[in-house]
User: Fold this.
Amino acid sequence: MSRVSHHLLFCALACALGIGAPVAIATPHHAATNDNDAILGKPIKAVLTAPPMVPPPTNRTAPAKVIVELEVVEKEMPISNGVTYNFWTFGGSVPGSFIRVRQGDTVEFNLKNAHDSHMPHNIDLHAVTGTGGGAEATFTLPGHQTKFTFKAMNPGLYVYHCAMPPVGMHIANGMYGLILVEPPQGLPKVDKEYYVMQGDFYTEGKYGEPGLQPFSLEKAIDEHPTYVLFNGAEGSLTGDKALTAKAGETVRLFVGNGGPNLVSSFHVIGEIFDKVYTEGGSKYQENVQTTLIPAGGSAMVEFKTDVPGNYILVDHSIFRTFHKGTLGILKVTGEKDSSIYTGQQSSMESPPAGKSGH
Amino acid sequence: MLTSTLWLVLLATSSPAASPAAYVEIPGGAFRSTIRYEGNDGDRVVADFALMQQAVSDREFQAFVLQHPQWRRDRVPALFADSGYLSHWQADDAPDPLDAERPATHVSWFAADAYCKAQQARLPDWAEWEYVAAADPQRRDARTDPVWRNRLFADGTSRAVDAAGNAPANAYGIRGLHGASWEWVGDFSTLLGDSDKRGADDGDRLQFCGATGLSFNNRDDYAVLKRVALLSAMQPRSTLGNLGFRCARSRP
Assistant:
């Protein structure tokens, strides 16, 4: 047999066995165009961000091996003005660190549980295809770390959360976040991207009662939250922490709902969502006022900020907003455009009701 | 197999321990455990036994280590203790003297078991531990009180009801069961569930804890659920900074 036919035979065998073509034979072109082939290049360490920030787009045309390193931290943080809570967190924030990968990526997930944690924790990523979403594989004692690897098969915006018993309590204490699996072509370019995640919280004390507030199991079971919040604290998206954009910019909000109990009627006062990727999936609806986000679910909303102003993020199940804290602000600066919105044009006393003409 | 053989060797070389710790007689009784072993959701009967009034302290554990130097952290076989074993001590055979009265932590199940055996005692069973821990200072079973139950969420942290040194004893006269440290039990490995704990493959019965026939009689008792979650995460050689132990004795 000639040398050539040896090569052909080897290639045929490799293909039949589903093995990626050996390096000696593969051409760069072949390797770069097939997502199912071997992972290209060196592993990439994932950039993780605390809310409301989002890691930059992956800007990759091919899958990679991505390493995620996330640490569970239990810590006391403000939940409202003068009120603190013992949060359990992924990465030190509520919601947890935002993770961004690309469809086809092989993700090596490393979960660390801080030495001073008092409980074991794990993580169930809804982006994972496989038993427990990784929860089984990441059963992690305080002061330990675990690792598992998954392939990001489906594009979309997915919730992750702790799934240790008592599961409800781990979620109620803030153990959730979002992982974005970009489609191969990436998401359409926008000017600003932000991370907003709702959660309901249950404390022994009433809304606003100062001091460290313990978790209330009774309220959690009854689904009567004391606080309903964006990004884990009242005021996390207001004042100098408001989200910002300039008039004319396009904004994408990655919106999640950690629950544990409530679904969200997500709305931005004064804006219409040009697009809503419903339930964080691949299809979008257009021209939406309010979108429903289930507990353990998400949505991507996109809109252009046409005119300046303060646009208020709310849960339009509206008593939550003004009595339990679900309020954020997107501050848009720039030139006014009275062809779109004038503001108040006049204010006067209306004429008294006319006497009956008869 | 290797483990148990080595274990017997160690046991044979250990000698009786010195300092007698205070034990409290616990009258047995029928008891509805929060957790349910397969096929048994009725009362369990706990026989009379005795339980250490408080958790074994670093100072007491040091006395044991000095008498049984095979349990020093620089000599203990890796089979019996992980790298965290006594890692908070200032020397291989000495805790920080300022903290020596605090419950001994960073102790593996093997080491705790050896300690108790050296006292002619044993680790309490889960059922015994839970039976006594159901008490608050006034009542032998305070578990139906939601206020009491909620306070137990802080178990294993410095905010725990028994974390303060001057916390009152419970109705049996036992101290510190709901302290800043969790406690080993002898049969902790029977608490093992699957590591996901949501029992995805076996429906309702396993909704709260794993696949080894364990479930919960009382879904409101999240405090105990946290404890079981922690204990079931352990290997017998594992150690934690907030996991200690105390010993028990059966009635002769």
